[in-house]
Amino acid sequence: MILLLQYTLVFASVLMLVALGGCFSEHSGVINIGLEGIMVFGALGGALVMSKLPAATPAVWVVVSAILAAMLMGLLYSLLLAVAAINFKADQTLVGTAMNLLGTAAATVIVKAINTSANPNNPSATLQYISAKKAFLLVDGYEFNWFMPLAVILLVLSFFILYRTRFGLRLMSCGEHPQASASVGINVFKMRYAGVMISGLLGGLGGLVYITAGVSEWKFENGVAGFGFLALAVMIFGGWKPMRIALAALLFGFFRALSNVYTGFDLLSRLNLPSTVYNMLPYIISLIVLVFFSKNSAAPKAEGVPYDQGSR
Amino acid sequence: MLKKRSLLGKPAVQTLLSSLLCIVLGVLVGYIALLIINPAGAGEAVTDILKNFWNYKKHATQMKNLGNTLVKTAPLLMCSLSVLFAYKVGLFNIGAAGQYVAGAGACIYCAVGLGWHWLPCMLAAVIAGALIGSISGVLKAHRNVNEVISCIMLNWISLYLVNTLLSKVKNPTSPYTYEISKQLVVEEGVAKTVAHTEALLPQIGINSLFNNNKYVGIAVPMAILFAVMIWVLLTKTRLGYELRATGLNKYAAKYCGMQDRFNIVLTMAISGALAGIGAAMFYLTGFEEWSVTQSSVPAMGFNGIAAAFLGGLHPVGAIFSSFFIQHITDGGAQLNKQVYPAEISNLISSLIIYFCGFVLFFKLVLNKWLDRRFEKRMAASQKGVSKS
Question: Which CATH number goes with the domain that contains A20?
Answer without folding.
Answer: 1.10.3470
